[in-house]
């Protein structure tokens, strides 16, 4: 399998593979995805086996155009309209009632479907060239770190795709915010690239979280997820000799300086953990970021990266 530059000719190669029922790794602004034709149940099946992902963990469907929504969504809502117009293309995923064109395997048997329009020219061009929406979860093995660079795609994934389109480093660097907009009772199912504050400002009111096992549960929100091989622990201070991510001056090559800004931190977090992980370290210490709203998605990923094995 080849890493291809995203020239128009290579985007056509990738589109042909997708339409032939194969998988392609694609860049988005959040993380790299492993994409299949969302209307082809057999192709979607290949995503689950490549990732070793449980069948009840639903996929996000990616569109390049509002018109495609007509075929995917059974019931568009006022909240969906407002948030899509405000944040698409961008790192926001909307959960809505699904149409019959979306196979049950995409949604893990749920009657809702998660949709987003990615803010990445290569992803948008590919979806357009395919003429079908693409189901594309992150291109990592189940529970592992999501790739934010083409060369971070794990060999077990790379060997099962037709090609990897190289769109450079991902701008956002962690996954999209997933929001339930099936009704006007809007809930955040997973924090991500668009902050709670931004969503609340767009809606003009505060938002709740969905209870983890309530009627609007979001399968796939595991305690351990987005994790390197090494153990991850958040600490107040990273000792001089330790391996870790810190805000100050590194004292060894096994320490990486992180920016004191939630968006900049998110954008390099997975790449930094990947780099330390590739040195086969046992534990990565992370200096505690501020416990404030804009850091919510970063905190969510740090907690899960260090979650129970
Ligand atoms: P990713 O691995 O980044 O593609 O994440 C997909 C995640 O979105 C899943 O693990 C779920 O947590 C969430 N999700 C996808 N579809 C739905 C749905 N229909 N209802 C609720 N949550 C969903
Ligand atoms: Mg994922």
What does it look like?
Helix content is about 30%, strand content about 20%. The chain contains 9 helices and 16 strands. Helix 1 crosses helix 5 (about 120-130). The protein is globular and about 55 Å long. The strands form 2 sheets. Strands 1, 2, 3, 4, 5, 6, 7, 8, 9, 10, 11 and 12 form a 12-stranded mixed beta sheet that branches. A 4-stranded parallel beta sheet has the order 13-16-14-15, covered by helices on one side. With about 300 residues, it is an alpha/beta fold. The mean pLDDT is about 95. Bound molecules: adenosine monophosphate and magnesium ion. Magnesium ion binds near residues 137, 138 and 146.
Give the low-pLDDT segments.
Answer: none
Bound molecules: adenosine monophosphate, magnesium ion
Q: Overall mean pLDDT score?
A: 94
Number of strand segments: 16
Q: List the helices and strands in order.
A: EHEEHEHEHEEHEHEEEHEEEEHEH
Which value, in Å, is the CA radius of gyration? 19 Å
Through-space gap between termini: 31 Å
Q: Describe the largest sheet.
A: 12 strands, mixed
Fraction of residues in H or I helices: 25-40%
Overall 3D form: globular
- How much of the sequence lies in strands comes to 15-25%
Helices, by number, come to 9
SSE class:
alpha/beta
């Amino acid at each position: 399998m080849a890493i291809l530059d995203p020239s128009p000719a290579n985007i056509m190669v990738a589109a042909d593979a997708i339409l032939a029922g194969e998988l392609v790794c694609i860049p988005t602004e959040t993380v790299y995805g492993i994409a299949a034709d969302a209307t082809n149940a057999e192709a979607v099946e290949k995503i689950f086996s490549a990732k070793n992902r449980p069948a009840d963990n639903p996929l996000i469907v990616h569109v390049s155009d509002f018109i495609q929504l007509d075929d995917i969504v059974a019931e568009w809502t006022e909240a969906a309209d407002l948030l899509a117009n405000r944040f698409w293309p961008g790192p926001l995923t909307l959960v809505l009632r699904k149409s019959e064109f979306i196979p049950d395997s995409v949604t893990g048997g749920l009657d809702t479907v998660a949709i987003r329009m990615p803010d990445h020219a290569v992803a948008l061009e590919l979806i357009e060239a395919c003429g079908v929406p693409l189901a594309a979860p992150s291109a990592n093995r189940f529970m592992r770190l999501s790739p934010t660079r083409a060369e971070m795609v794990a060999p077990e994934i790379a060997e099962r795709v037709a090609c990897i389109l190289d769109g450079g480093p991902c701008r956002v660097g962690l996954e999209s915010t997933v929001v339930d907009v099936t009704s006007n009772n809007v809930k955040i199912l997973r924090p991500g690239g668009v902050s709670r504050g931004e969503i609340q400002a767009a809606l003009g009111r505060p938002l709740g979280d969905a209870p983890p096992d309530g009627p609007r549960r979001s399968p796939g929100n595991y305690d351990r997820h987005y994790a390197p091989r090494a153990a991850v622990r958040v600490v107040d201070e990273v000792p001089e000799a330790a391996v870790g991510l810190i805000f100050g001056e590194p004292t060894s090559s096994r320490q990486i300086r992180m920016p004191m800004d939630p968006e900049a931190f998110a954008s390099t977090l997975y790449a930094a953990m990947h780099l330390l992980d590739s040195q086969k370290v046992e534990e990565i210490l992370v200096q505690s970021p501020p416990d404030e709203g804009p850091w919510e998605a970063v905190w969510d990923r740090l907690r899960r990266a260090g979650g129970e094995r």
